[in-house]
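Lab notebook: predicted structure, single chain.

Context: the supervisor wants predicted structures on file for every construct in the current expression panel, including those that have not yet been purified. This is the next one on the list. No modifications to the sequence; it matches the entry in the shared construct table.
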Amino acid sequence: MAQAQASLPDFAELVEDTSPAVVNISTRQHQKAGRQAGMVPGMPDLEGLPPIFREFFERSIPQVPPQQRRPQEREAQSLGSGFIISADGYVLTNNHVVEGADEIIVRLSDRSELEAELVGTDPRTDVALLKVKGNDLPYVKLGSSSELKVGEWVVAIGSPFGFDYSVTAGIVSAKGRSLPNENYVPFIQTDVAINPGNSGGPLFNLDGEVVGINSQIFTRSGGFMGLSFAIPVDVAMEVADQLKAQGKVSRGWLGVVIQEVNKDLAESFGLDKPAGALIAQVMPDGPAAKGGLRDGDIILRFNGKEIVRSGDLPHAVGRVKPGTSASVEVVRQGKRQQLQVTVGSLPDEGEALVAQAGGQEKRSNRLGVVVSELTADQRSNLDLKRGVVISEVTDGPAAVIGLRPGDVITHLNNSAIDSVKTFAEVVDELPKNRTVSMRVIRQGHASFITFKLAE
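Prediction complete. Output recorded below exactly as produced.
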């Protein structure tokens, strides 16, 4: 027991050395808020009261004519954390800490306050870069998040619930975490206690180097429940450098819709185990299309980085400078191929494709569907060169796997479907009791599904 206690780290010196560079951030946002109907100027705002009390007070307050009512100016405040990264006053924090702020105040460890200029923000990574006036300010040492190991001790310093310079510690529990709606950040997952107010604060390794920016928690109560997530400092500094140089961030883009490769899909595509990112759809005229990538390709490596899960691909692509040529290793029809793709620039907004059903019925088949050729309008609207459209689903496997009229089938059992005739031939040759993949486009969104014909 004594040996175990002796091996535990002492964080006191680390905190003493690094805390002067950690700052508290508050924001002010001036909001125009209409008064309660007929309230007397100078009376308190009742908006925050429970309805039963609000009604009671409203009945007790004298009413005033509409022409005497004036809008009330309210001041919203936000509390978060941040850290100084250079002696001349550049500060990193989260975008959501300063979003919409009219005024940003940075409070240092000596309790002095400085007004900060917003250099730029990047909502996609939730990083914001600030600048305060000053010389010889204390600043942190930057580490490398790529060298961080799972199980390593880490320390967070911040202002949870407004309590300045609170210190919590824990270990790295995972790396490269993908979170819902956060495609461009491979988060560091820790069990360090993080609460509201810690956002934007630094995550240190035992060498006193910043390895991440504390950003999010998973919670059902509103407070810490054992999972916290930090933006890797390598990602944050790439963003900060771009914000400092040009005020905005450009990141790489392939122009593909991808999905996870599960066990059944891996079997249908001839892989030994689930791996990579399956391309469900290639955007027309995008970088992937110009580089020769196709629907149904499984990307296993991108620019030398192994793609274990589909979520690894956006992280890898986003960090590549637009206009750069990148190597892509794919599995296509069971064989590995190397391609070179010139990475594009991620657009501000994606374009949606809209599918339209129609066409003439042709024939039924073992799947239990009636299919027809794509019309010229359907090919144009969906930008498709091949496929057949389902006009009717009868009893059979198609109904079981959820196919619907209007779905477009472009690939079946790793074969491209360019006509009703080809579709019928492939269906007739489908193997029994083996996993088969099918690429389906529904309302403009493509995905691969799997099934077995048990006959």
